[in-house]
Amino acid sequence: MSLSRHLIALSAAVCLAAGLAAAPATAEPRPRTLGELARKHHKYFGSATDNPEFTDAAYLKLLGSEFGQTTPGNAMKWYATEPERGVFDFTAGDEVVAFAKAHHQKVRGHTLVWHSQLPAWLTERDWTAEELRAVLKNHIQTVVRHYKGQVIHWDVVNEAFNEDGTYRESLFYKTLGPGYIAEALRWAHEADRHAKLYLNDYNVDGIGPKSDAYYTLIKQLKADGVPVEGFGIQGHLALQYGFPADVRQNMQRFADLGVEVAVTELDIRMNLPATPSMLATQATWYADYVKACLAVRKCVGVTIWDYTDKYSWIPSVFPGEGAALPYDENLRPKPAYHAIREVLGG
Ligand code: 9MR
């Protein structure tokens, strides 16, 4: 090979090497995840999860990468954590917390006092008020102490009101009267002074009798010095029932009471089969809901009630309905996913 040919070959090799070295700088940057985009607004974007899903590697990969927060869908409920009186089992909850920790995710604790998913030992006998108070206090404090420092929030009382704003006649209400809510909050606070304590419910997206009941209750609890620090708006919507246009105003009035607000279980179901136009409407609704949270400084984040239609609770509870989440059953992002990204600035 002549000298000039040598030089040409050499310079080609240098250019190639330089080109390769420069490649990472010119390559498309990795798109920000929903969790990262939300963090820029000082909020989190999360997904609920459930232990049976932990065998699905593709599912876990997205759960761990895309979201900055998780909520165990069932693992911390009473039936799971205290299956026999005084016998506690934190296996399922610990599994979710360990996953979250490994993926730098915040965890919301869900839930301590709820009328549903209670163990049989609790529901299948009558309790005096004194007995039930002791059982409730022990349950709350044992669970909260176990997760101390590991959860940012507790849904201390879940779904305490009926649609008309009257108290739900749960075991706790019937036996202890409405004062069980303040007591539950005080007991939880004694066990973990740092977790933010929430009341959480569905159909409280807009202003109406049910959210008014929470407004009045939280105002009273604050006046009485009870440690209530957050209002959880679950956000289980359905296309056929319309979008709660005043969700931002509703969030703001709770913020003005001095509590934070979180969207805790967002999903938007529809009658199947889903059409492109229904999915487009769903995308707008997700975007508008997230926008409302972004507009309220004390709205701390949004959690969707799992992220894929593969594991949504909807089809089993509302036959003929579904397609409620931003990813389809094959873990492919739907229009809703892209709409949420856009609102978050992605
Ligand atoms: O996602 C939960 C599902 O796996 C359970 O079967 C169901 C039982 O009621 O509870 C679901 O989660 C609920 C949440 O704990 C409270 N708000 C309503 C949610 C949907 O039912």
TrEMBL record:
Name recorded for this polypeptide: Beta-xylanase
Top-rank lineage group of the source organism: Bacteria
Stretch forming the signal peptide: 1-27
Broad class of enzyme this protein falls into: hydrolase
Location of the GH10 domain: 48-343
Organism for this UniProt entry: Streptomyces tanashiensis
Positions of the catalytic residues: 265 (nucleophile)
InterPro entries: GH, GH10, GH10_AS, GH10_dom
Family indicated by similarity: Belongs to the glycosyl hydrolase 10 (cellulase F) family.
Annotated keywords: Carbohydrate metabolism, Glycosidase, Hydrolase, Polysaccharide degradation, Signal, Xylan degradation
Reaction(s) this enzyme catalyzes, per UniProt: Endohydrolysis of (1->4)-beta-D-xylosidic linkages in xylans
Enzyme Commission number(s) from the entry: 3.2.1.8
SUPFAM superfamilies noted in UniProt: (Trans)glycosidases
